[in-house]
Each structure stands twice: as C-alpha cells, then as structure tokens.
Amino acid sequence: MNDAKEKVAAALLAAYETKEAIEPPRNTIPDLDLDGAYAIQQWQERALKEAGRTILGRKIGLTSIAMQQQLGVDSPDFGFFTDQQLFHDGDHIDVSQFIAPKVEPELAFKINRDLGADATFDEVVDAVEEAYLAVEIIDSRVRNWDIRLVDTVADNASCAAVILSSNPVDIPIEQLAEVEAEMTVGEGAPQSGIGSAVMGHPLKPLVWLAGVLAEQGTPIQAGEIILTGSFCGAAAVHAGESVRVDYGKYGTLTATFSEGQQ
User: Fold this and answer.
1) CA nearest 64: which of 55, 53, 54, 75?
2) Distance CA 61, CA 92 (A)
3) pLDDT at 262 over 50
4) 227 with 110: CB under 8 angstroms?
5) What are the pLDDT digits (tens) for 46-86?
6) Which of 56, 147, 158, 167 has its CA 20 to 30 A from that of 134?
7) What is the CA radius of gyration of the chain?
8) Contact, 221 vs 114, CB < 8 A?
9) How many beta carbons lie within 10 A of that of residue 174, not counting itself?
10) 48-107-79 Cα angle (round to 5)
11) Angle formed by the axes of helices 3-18 and 34-50, nearest 10°
12) What is the secondary structure of 176-223 as a DSSP string?
C-alpha cells in the first residue's frame, strides 16, 4: 500500500482515540477505488491485531435500500469489529467514545465452519450455529458523515460497536425474512423494518460476504459473528437516551447511552 493510503489509514485509526474526524478519503486520494479503500481498512485491522485486539466478526452494511438511500451509496460493504467493541443487552454505553453515533436494528449469526468464495445459500444456512438480536452502532471518522462508498469502506464500513442479546434466539430459518423490528431511540418516533428488507433474507448477505472476503484471501471463519445489515434507516443517539428494539415474540434489546461509564 502506498504512503497516501497508509497515512489515511493511520489517521482513521487515530480518530478512534482523538475523536477528530478526517477529510473524506476520496478527497485526499482522488483516484481511490474500492480495492484501495479495503486496503486502508485492512491496514487498520492488522494494526489492531498487532495491538492485541481480537477480531470477533464482521458487519455487512448497506444491505437495505433504506440504508443505501440514507448514506447515498448503491452497494453493500463490510467491516470488522473487535472484542473491545462488543456490548450486550442492558449495557450502559459511554457515548463520548464516539464522534457522531447512530444505531441500527439487525440480526447477527455465529458461524460454525469456514465459508469460501463458492458458498451457496444452503451452505450458509447449514453453517449458522446461533442467531442473536443485534444493534450496530455506526459512527463516522470521516467529517460530518460526508461519505461515499469508498469513504465508508476505508473507515471500516462506519462500524463503531455491536450490541448483542445476552443469549441466542431461536428463529427458524424459514421465518428470518418475516422477523419484524421496531426501534425507538429516546423520545423519538419509532422506526421499523422487516428481515426481507435485508437483500430479501437476512442470510443472503452472508453469501455475498463469503465471495468478497475469499477474493481478498480471508474466508469467513468458524466462530465469527456476522451482522448482516439493518432492517431500517439508522437513528442518531445522544447522551441520556436509550435505544430499545422490539423484535416481537423473539424479544427486545436495550442499551442506555451516557457521558462516562456508569
């Protein structure tokens, strides 16, 4: 990777600590393409591993029309999350660790075997060990959320943290597309969506991810947890607010955001 990409990667990584967002990578590197953007992301992943963090899994983003329209892009993307970015149902989360966070209701799946480039939908179904209710916290280390696809990819697909249900949920595979989620943040109006909004079925993005990751020499690995995309648009969250997602008969997921740890 050339010096310009390394400088952008280092600046994005530093922004997690400084909370100082950077200029859009597309402006710094005018010819930045998707391969280059993923190279910037991978540089950060390697750096975090070298610093002792564990990669727990991946997030697939922009899998619904609602999110593509909200962020002005036209293709899915993916990022990663570490052990330090994992929260659970009911947690109090320090909002000051983010820059401009938003929340999205999703489902997450733990995979029990490696999945290569030619993984079929049926093979993905067979590889699912557990399902979890999930909320992804997205954030932008790019100033003012001024992003296009290459910018969000370089910025780890705008991933900031993941909230999972404390226990797996039993959702029959054939009913995943029918799961409904209603998300309320603070006193705001509820937003809702359904599993079929995620590429027609919440497991279909895993087939896409298996192919894309394999092209980069990194298959989906056994034990990883994969979030497959938001059911609806993302909502901003601020200190003093709680997020609650009602998944109907499958349960609820909540978290409270505050300034400083509780």
Assistant:
1) 75
2) 24
3) no
4) no
5) 999 999 999 999 999 876 666 666 666 666 789 999 999 99
6) 147
7) 17
8) yes
9) 9
10) 25
11) 60
12) GGG-EEEEEETTSPPEEEEGGGTTTSTTHHHHHHHHHHHHTT--B-TT
Continuous segment of H or E residues that includes residue 26: helix 25-28
Residue carrying structure tokens 């660790």: 97
Lowest-pLDDT choice from 9-13, 14-18, 75-79, 126-130: 75-79
Q: How far apart are CA 24 and CA 141, in angstroms?
A: 9
pLDDT of residue 13: 98
Whose tokens are 């990022």? That residue is 79
Q: Structure tokens of 212?
A: 């894309």
Q: Tokens standing for 165? A: 């249900």
Q: How far is CA 171 from the centre of its chain?
A: 21
- Give the C-alpha separation, 157 to 154, whole Å: 7
Report field, pTM of the whole predicted structure over 0.85: yes
| Averaged pLDDT for residues 6-32 | 97
Angle at 40 between CA 229 and CA 112, to 5 degrees: 45
103-138 pLDDT tens trace = 999 999 999 999 888 899 999 999 999 999 999 999
Tokens of 257: 């955001």
Q: Which residue has the tokens 């298996």?
A: 210
